[in-house]
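Ticket #4471: complex job returned nothing on first submit. Input attached below:
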Amino acid sequence: MEKYPGKPLSSKEMEEVTHEKWDPAVKYAWSCGEAMSRFLNELKKGKLVGRKCHKCRRVIFPPKMFCETCFRPTDEWVYLPDTGTVMTYSVSYLDMDANRIEEPILVGVIAIDGASENMGIMHYFEEMKPEDLTFGLKVKAVWKPEKERTGAVTDIKYFKPLEGSK
Amino acid sequence: MTIFSRRLKETGKEMCFEAVRAALDEAGLELKDIDTVVCGTAPDAFDGIHMKGENLLDGCGGSKKTYMRVFTGGGTGVLAPIAGWWHVASGVSDVCLVVCEEKMSSCFPHPQSAFGHIWDPILDRPLRPNLVWIFAMEMNRYMHVHNISKEDIALVSVKNKKNALDHPSAQLAANITVDDVLNSEVMAWPVQRLDISPPSDGAAALILVAEDKVSSITDNPVWVEGVGWCIDSTMWTNRDLYFPQYVAKAAKMAYRMAGIHNPFKEIDVAEPYDPFDYKELHHMEGLLLCKKGEAARLTREGVTERDGDLPTCPSGGLLGVGNPIAATMGIKAGEIYWQLAGKAGKRQVPDARTGVCQAWGDLMQYGSVMVMRS
Amino acid sequence: MTFVDRIERPEDFRHWVGDMEAQYVYTSGIAGDKFFTELKKGKILATKCAKCGKVFLPPRMYCEDCFCELTEWIEVPNKGIVETFTVVHVDRDENPLETPEVRAFIRMEGTDGGFVHKLNIPPESVEIGIPVKAVFKKEKEREGRITDIQYFVK
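Support reply: We reran it on our side without changes. The output follows.
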């Protein structure tokens, strides 16, 4: 077989050849905009809010000030319950930096009740064993105590199975 | 193309030079014969160099030439040759060089860290996600909707890593079994280690020539007959992930241009994007090569082997050769070219006349498709 | 067409703070590794293109114009000319420096390239065209990086 160019290095050799190290140390302050500002402020109050488009009549969650299919501004705020259905999930043995962890993280997408089809957000699942996590499972949010909430998606700690469902 | 490896000593520019030099040599051309250069390279955050396209310029042979850098994440490997096609088809270029490069080894602690800023900062990042999670969720949804087993999906990994044994660039070629895949480390269920392709360094190059110039350069051209590209929203939690609609739209665009009405019958060889084994199946369905949910059965029946009715990923794909994002052009568009020109050596599929390649990118949202004929 | 809601309470608007989690290690490459390894020993090397005669400093693996692989390495004398310069009064974060510093592009003799580096010369004495030479750090302090050259002097 012909040989293609390229000089591979092991991780040890990577330290031995001449190189430069750099930490960008870049910081950002992202403007949340009107919809996400209200979304975060409502989370602090323990509530979920979506936005409705009067033309296509969809309830969009997380909320947006514009409807991306009708391409017009959305019309009203809609409060939604903090319950939903599991659309998909994963049982992860990796953390954010790809390190291996002992206890798996249960994570998935929850379609929120009262919003239009497939209107989901990603969040954690707890108070269940990995084998209990299934498609279509009905779940409910478990919130941080009010004084610990800051207006972030982590004001919800995780979703647990809705009582009486399985 | 260069070899694909977890880390290469070459700088990004040097990798580009190596790939371009090899392409020029194979075509019997010199840099002065090239009028336009398109560089495809995915996020700056991998190499860690802002405005990477500008930085790589001289290694791509683009100095003082008409130059453009394109990127659509993982979709770049096929979108870059499409961008080259734009230049030639519009008449702006007669001989267009397309170069793709990726140097993921620069990023610490792991190339994953560069993916950190693909996430929505408010909705996703506070949950400290790992990119493998979302692919695991897509895989899980696909398996659930069509009731597909991990065993059937693992057959793709077995096939591609075996095919890669015949590819000179291969990083992960091996003879493995379905049991090896099912017993490998669980990363984020249902994704296990042998279901995934690795991060890689590498570069690839190809040359596009206008119709009226081609006979002076080669008597064995391969023609670009159809191109398509399409993107869906980043709000991936608002989509049903079991079917890649954006790939289907891109495929329809390319097939219409190429005059293809029955893809399964008319396509002789396919290179769908396979960063995960389930993705080959997902994309075969997105490319309309079979009905939804049917790709697993075709794999099980051997239809996608090199000697089957629809050889799929004869190069060994990303699973076997490696995944330097944009540089996968070499095993997608590059492989279809080599197959249709009869230059694929041990990987050669007999009587390949029409081929399709496809790439997939960003937050599970981008599809780029190219149809070629000899 | 703008959003239908009027903004009545601007204090309700939020921002979200974050950073970039990645750090980087850049290999100097095939040509770069040889250059920095020799620089550590106090030598300045360049590559020469056999076709067009261009001499690359810092050395490259390929000629940008002829696009051939460069295999001819030459040692460059430690002699350069200031081709252009600037006098810097603030640091990267725009804090004033105690004493202004001179940064220059120095064209090295016999090459088509040179160095961007610090001139350890009082700003009033710097002119385009003055000859300068590199001062290296003490040998045991060198690391195989561009900073192995401490600065340039007359």
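The CA atoms of residues 162 and 175 of chain B lie 5 Å apart. Closing as resolved unless it happens again.
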